[in-house]
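Quick check before the chapter quiz. The format below is the same one you will see on the exam, so make sure you can read both the input and the output lines.
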Amino acid sequence: METIMKMFHHLDWANQRILEALKSKEDQANQAKLQFSHILLAEEVWFQRIKGQDSNPLAIWTELTIEECSKLVEKNKQHVARLFAGVSKEDLEERIVYKNSTGQEFSTSVRDILTHVALHGQYHRGQINRLLRQVGHEPVNVDFITFVR
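Here is the expected output.
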C-alpha cells in the first residue's frame, strides 16, 4: 500500500510539472497537450471504473485546453485522496468488472488498476518530453528518483 501511495504522489508531482511546462509552451506543443489530456482522461476513466460507474462514454483521446487539464489534474488528485482515505489492504485485492472502450469485459484487481494508472502516465509523460524536444524545448524531469530526492 505504501508503494502504491508513493507512486500516486509521484504521479501528481509529475503531472503538475508537465502542466506547468505546457502552460508556457501551449502554442507550440499541441501534440504534447493531446498526450497529457489522454493521461488525465485515462486516469478519470479508471477512477470511474473503481467506483463501479460506466466509463464507456468518456473519450480518452480528446484534446483538452490547458485550463481543462488543470481542473482535471485537481479532480483526479481528489479522487486519489478519497480512494486512499478509505482503502484497506484487502480492498486492493477486490476485482473490478468493467468494459473497455470496445465493449469487451474484464475483471482486474484494484491493486493492478492503480499500478497501471501510475505506469501509464509515466509512459506518456516520456512521449510528451520527446514531443517537447522535437519543437525545441527542454524535456521536463519527471524521474521518480528526482521526486524522492
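If your answer matched, good. The domain at 2-148 is CATH 1.20.120.450 (Four Helix Bundle (Hemerythrin (Met), subunit A)).
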